[in-house]
Write a sequence for this structure.
């Protein structure tokens, strides 16, 4: 008796997250590539040694997430980030940094970067940051991002808060509550649990917060919350 062929449709594996590495140190890129390419859901599809080269290559190659160094020759990571995020369908950008780049990092976030990654972060934190930023719904989650935000905002000039407080004026009490939890690194699921509401409701609140603040993503919204004094470092 002949067994009929299997005619059931085969499931297609989801496409891997495409990652670009932009760093002038080849050994750094090689180390990152080795870690990233070891994961079935991630792959490095592009490398560049400076911001100018990255802009040229990314004009013709689509990627999902860019790991962007700050200090590079020809074109630094800040300028490259600003130009990339101004493009339609821009990739999400994670800034590679250390604590001694305070003023540069905050500028990168204002330019549209979606998070930070410390260069000495353990491999699992780097992988988690890439996946988190790619999802777009919890970009504050990596611990380095929150620590850096708190570190940065401590040094902000006193007059910085006034215009940011005005930006929060249109938020409802519930939206302010959600924004505070976002700044504490809570995911949508965790916020829903904290507030005893459905996750879909949280997503609606987050969308309204971003729209009212004119923020590209959660990181920029949280920067505004810190600058306005709604959230204090260590709270």
């Amino acid at each position: 008796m002949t067994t009929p062929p299997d005619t059931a449709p085969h499931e297609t594996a989801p496409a891997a997250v495409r990652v670009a590495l932009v760093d002038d140190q080849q050994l750094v890129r090689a180390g990152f590539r080795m870690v990233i390419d070891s994961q079935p859901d991630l792959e490095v599809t592009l490398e560049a040694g400076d911001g100018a080269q990255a802009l040229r290559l990314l004009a013709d190659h689509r990627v999902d997430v860019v790991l962007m160094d700050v200090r590079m020759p020809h074109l630094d990571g800040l300028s490259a980030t600003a130009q990339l995020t101004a493009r339609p369908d821009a990739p999400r950008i994670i800034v590679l940094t250390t604590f001694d780049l305070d003023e540069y990092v905050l500028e990168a976030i204002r330019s549209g970067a979606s998070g930070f990654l410390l260069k000495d972060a353990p491999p699992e934190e780097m992988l988690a940051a890439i996946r988190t930023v790619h999802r777009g719904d919890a970009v504050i989650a990596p611990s380095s991002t929150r620590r850096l935000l708190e570190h940065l905002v401590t040094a902000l000039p006193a007059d910085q808060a006034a215009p940011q407080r005005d930006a929060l004026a249109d938020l409802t009490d519930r939206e302010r509550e959600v924004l505070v939890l976002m700044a504490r690194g809570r995911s949508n699921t965790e916020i829903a649990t904290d507030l005893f509401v459905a996750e879909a409701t949280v997503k609606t609140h987050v969308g309204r917060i971003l729209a009212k603040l004119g923020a590209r993503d959660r990181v920029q919204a949280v920067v505004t919350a810190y600058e306005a004094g709604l959230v204090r470092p260590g709270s």
